[in-house]
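Researcher: Re-running this chain for the archive, since the previous output was lost when a drive failed. Same request as before.
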Amino acid sequence: MNSFLSKEESSFYLNEGYLVRENQFSIHEVNSLRDALERAVNNAQEKAPNGKVYYLDEKKFVDVDYMTLQYEPQPSDNILKVIEPAHFLDKELYSLTQDKRITDPIRSILKEDEISLWTDKLNLKRPGSGSGFGWHQDSPYWVHDSRNVDLLPNVYLSLDDANEDNGCFRVIRASHKEGCLPGTSNGTQLGGFYTDPNCFNETDAVDLNITAGSLVFFNQHIIHGSGPNLSDQQRRAYIITYQPKDQPMLKSGEVNNIN
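Model: Regenerated C-alpha cells:
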C-alpha cells in the first residue's frame, strides 16, 4: 500500500503550504520512536564534550561530528533543544527517514520518484523549560548551501500530543507563496533568521493541535514557529527534509538517496 498524496491533498498543500495527516503511526510505534529519540539524545550528549562550544545571542551551541547541538537559554542551558542532524545517532531514526508513510508524500510533493535526504533534526521541548521558536522560514538558512532551495519539503512527526500549552507547531497559512522573505534587522546575531513581521499577518496563524504519531508536511518557504512548553508534558518532534536525488546533505556533504 502506498501513501502518495491524493489530488485533494496535493491541492491543499499547494495552496496552504502545509498538510496534516493524523495518526499515521500507532502508539506502539510512537513509544518505540520515543525510546529511539532519547537514545539519540544520550548519544549526542556523550559526544558534546568533544565538540566546539560557541554562543550566539547568549544561546549555547556545540558543533561535533557534522552535528550542531542547540541548548535552551539560561538558566536551562544544560538542556538540549535541537539536534541536527540526528539520523546517524540511532538506527531506528535512520530507518524512519525511509518509511514510505513519509517518503511517498514527499515524492508526490517533489513530483520525483527518486529523492534524497537534505537534513533532519530532533526538536525537544522539555516540560517547563522548553522555549519557543519565533516566526521564521527554513529557506533563508539553506539558500547559500543548496542549489535546490525551492525543492526542500519538510515533514514533521509529532512524538507527543501537541497543543498550545506545550508549544504546538504553528504556521502562517499560504505564506510560502512569497518565497524567501527578509529577516529582522534588530542588531542581534540571529535576528536575520527570523522573518520580518512586516512581511506577514499573524492573524493568518494556524495552531496545529495534533496527536502523537501525526505528520505535518510543510513547504520550506512557509513561515512557522511555536510557543514555549508551559505544561508538565513532553513535546518532542522529529523533522526530516528531503530533496531531489543525488544531492549532498547539508552538514556532511554526503549523498543519501532514499529507496
